[in-house]
Amino acid sequence: MIELEGLTKHYGDVRAVDHLTFTVRPGIITGFLGPNGAGKSTTMRMMLDLDNPTSGTVRIDGRHYRELRDPLRAVGALLDAKAMHGGRSAYHHLLCLAQSNGIAPARVREVLDTVGLTSVAKKRTKGFSLGMGQRLGIAAALLGDPRILMFDEPVNGLDPEGIHWIRNLMKGLAAQGRTVFVSSHLMSEMALTADHLIVIGRGRLMADMSMSDFISENSRSYVRMRSPDAERLRDVLHGAGIDVAPGADGALEVTGEDAAHLGELAARHRIVLHELSPQQASLEEAFMRLTAGSVEYHAHENHQRSAAGAKAPAGAWGADWRKKGS
Ligand SMILES: Nc1ncnc2c1ncn2[C@@H]1O[C@H](COP(=O)(O)OP(=O)(O)OP(=O)(O)O)[C@@H](O)[C@H]1O
């Protein structure tokens, strides 16, 4: 397992990572989520000893990364898919890694096959697409057959078939009892992949819980009601002791009540309804609500912060981002 205790990293005045304490366990996929600039990559770099913490510790199976005898056999990581020698072929890139880490050359062919790059194994990597680079990076991570795998934004640049493939690959690795830690800023993708979530915002821990607990604790379900006689409907609901919140387009939003019960109540008072619809806030909305105060970059065309209850545009991250205040 991976254990972080009080992990902190400052870059000048920027607190990229701020006292992170959590444990990543084997046998499941742990999703590492946060808005752009939340500190995910910095945390992963420190886990792999590529960056020194300002304070705090990371332990991999009880040891510091530097103390691992065969690091590539203990931890495999995909951090930056472009971090390879462009003049080398995919095969030679992996062979160099294998030879410098005491891994049998035969393993190179195996991992090339696993990631579907056998037919381009002899091609120089500088001609590779982003998706092919991601696959090669994943092959490198798998090379030492490690018990712990870390992937930083692994679906970047992959087509739908590739995304499906990596999702199943990660599930298979977790099912074999390995520790799988995967970062993303795409909640919708995480919802399909992860069993457990670690959510950070501005370097701080915001959630450390199972996916199912995260959904039930952070996504709001309510009933949306619209009526040409909204005033009277509100009065009737209030009269029945039901709390009502104003929604978009003059709708009323009722939390904690059954839609059928609300419909019957309206019918008893002969109030016409144009809409009576149960709503479940998506996980993406729940995530945006949770991290609303910690988002460092906002879409230029949408100056509104995604405050609680506000309808943030789904998938807005990755749109036209500008640093807050610009
Ligand atoms: N080498 C560095 N020097 C100075 N500041 C840095 C450096 N690396 C990261 N930062 C800052 O630290 C913060 C966290 O960055 P980091 O890349 O870890 O976030 P992230 O969650 O991985 O973001 P993204 O999803 O956009 O990749 C940001 O404010 C970033 O600007």
Automatic annotation (TrEMBL):
Q: Where is the composition biased (Low complexity)?
A: 307-319
Tell me the ranges covered by the ABC transporter domain, including all copies: 2-227
Gene3D superfamilies, alphabetically?
P-loop containing nucleotide triphosphate hydrolases (3.40.50.300)
The organism is Streptomyces cinnamoneus
Family, according to the entry, reads as follows: Belongs to the ABC transporter superfamily.
List where this protein forms a coiled coil: none
- UniProt keyword annotation of ATP-binding present: yes
UniProt name for this protein: Export ABC transporter ATP-binding protein
PANTHER family linked to this entry: ABC TRANSPORTER, ATP-BINDING PROTEIN (PTHR43335:SF4)
Per the UniProt entry, the signal peptide is none
Keywords of this protein's UniProt record, alphabetized?
ATP-binding, Nucleotide-binding, Transport
Region of interest (Disordered), residue spans: 301-326
| Record has Nucleotide-binding as a keyword | yes
Entry's Gene Ontology molecular function annotations: ATP binding; ATP hydrolysis activity
